[in-house]
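sry for the spam today, last one i promise. struct tokens for design, 431 residues
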């Protein structure tokens, strides 16, 4: 088979390490880097470059001449095709060490010399959120995940990371989708497993028919689904079926989560993150001490923090902010919790506003918070607790704190997305 035009041919290479996106890293004879999915350190493999990628080439393995002793059988039959997991084939000890190294390297690039807490790894079958693609084909409904670096959707019959309740819902959801007139060619489904049951947000490419609403109501009743929300394409969701409030407990406070709303991916991961944040708060706060919480969501951290200190929670998503505020009002916590709807990317809090608080807790999106962190660094704040889902963004933002005189007190890696290249962490910076 001839290589695509302009690409090198197949070659035998050594995999020297695993990169930050989970690919094996090798090099051609001239030093050009190769990014090889499913390659492990120490392996000697015949690989074929398949596309230009950065300053090198993406490549795929055609044959492994020398396998790593750390290579293990993948537990999922979809592994290697599904784009959800990248590292099921790696020994658990080596995998955990690599995950921790992502956080260590990011903090070192920022100028810190971290001593990390032991990594917290969530177990298989614990993911309580699934984000699925839907396709209607002549052969039936395809419900699953995209392949790696491709828009093709593979039909998922089971999943080794999903909570059993969500895994059991897959065939039932596939059956109801088959009967919906609103699903023409494609759609998506987000399912959050709440305390009240699996909460579903469907997006379809056609309008919901009257008969569709009856079908979804019967489906919710039969399978313990508290709420089914629906939207056409990217429109705002509306309620299609409601049996009971879609609630979950956050630090003991019942919260109605918005349709498709953000939640920590597992109870174990949430507990680890909340615990690390609580451990990072001032040990003996004064009665007047206040926490500024940025990117607060629906209150995953807010209600836990409020047990120890007063907190002002700022969130850019209107539905999430309203959810947090309503829960605080309903449980008479307004004396401990105040809320503010504010887009922190476009309108970050000023250094003066930040300085009015004693501690900042922030949990920004994947890209981090460069605009806001610069103003935090310029404030008089003495303690910053940074919850990160992206070591690279954390390293960049941590550099601004380092330059402002902050020291790293503690950092906890949390592997909430098992077998992926993603890593969460909680880092405490103090002056």
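last one done:
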């Amino acid at each position: 088979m001839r290589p695509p035009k302009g690409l090198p041919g197949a070659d035998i290479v050594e995999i020297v390490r695993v990169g930050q996106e989970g690919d094996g890293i090798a090099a051609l004879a001239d030093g050009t880097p190769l990014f090889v999915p499913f390659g492990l350190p120490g392996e000697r493999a015949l690989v074929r470059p398949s596309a230009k990628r950065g300053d090198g080439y993406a490549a795929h393995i055609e044959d492994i001449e020398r396998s790593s002793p750390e290579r293990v059988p993948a537990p999922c039959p979809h592994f290697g095709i599904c784009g959800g997991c990248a590292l099921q084939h790696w020994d658990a000890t080596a995998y955990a060490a690599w995950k921790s190294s992502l956080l260590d390297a990011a903090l070192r690039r920022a100028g810190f010399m971290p001593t990390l807490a032991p990594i917290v790894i969530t177990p298989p079958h614990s993911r309580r959120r699934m984000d699925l693609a839907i396709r209607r084909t002549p052969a039936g409904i395809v419900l699953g995940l995209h392949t790696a670096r491709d828009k093709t959707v593979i039909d998922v019959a089971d999943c080794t990371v999903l909570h059993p309740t969500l895994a059991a819902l897959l065939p039932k959801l596939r059956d109801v989708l088959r009967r919906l007139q609103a699903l023409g060619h494609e759609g998506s489904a987000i399912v959050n497993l709440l305390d009240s049951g699996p909460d579903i947000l469907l997006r379809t490419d056609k309008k919901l028919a009257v008969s569709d609403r009856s079908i979804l109501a019967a489906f919710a009743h039969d399978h313990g689904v508290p709420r089914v929300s629906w939207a056409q394409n990217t429109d705002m969701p509306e309620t299609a079926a409601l049996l009971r409030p879609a609630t979950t407990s956050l630090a003991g406070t019942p919260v109605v989560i918005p349709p498709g709303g953000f939640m920590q991916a597992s109870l174990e991961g949430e507990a680890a993150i909340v615990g690390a944040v609580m451990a990072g708060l001032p040990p003996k706060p004064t009665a007047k001490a206040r926490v500024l919480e940025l990117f607060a969501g629906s209150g995953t951290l807010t209600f836990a923090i409020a047990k120890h200190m007063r907190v002002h929670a700022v969130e850019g998503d209107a539905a999430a902010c309203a959810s947090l505020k309503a829960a605080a009002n309903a449980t008479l916590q307004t004396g401990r919790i105040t809320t503010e709807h504010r887009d922190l990317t476009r309108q970050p809090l000023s250094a003066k506003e930040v300085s009015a608080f004693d501690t900042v807790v922030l949990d920004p999106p994947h890209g981090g918070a460069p605009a806001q962190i610069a103003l935090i660094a310029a404030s008089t704040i003495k303690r910053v607790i940074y919850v990160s889902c992206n070591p690279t963004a954390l390293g960049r933002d941590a550099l601004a704190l380092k330059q402002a005189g902050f020291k790293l007190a503690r950092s906890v890696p949390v592997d909430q997305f098992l077998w992926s290249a993603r890593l969460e962490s909680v880092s405490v910076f103090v002056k």
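The domain at 94-123+263-430 is CATH 3.40.50.150 (Rossmann fold). ok im logging off now
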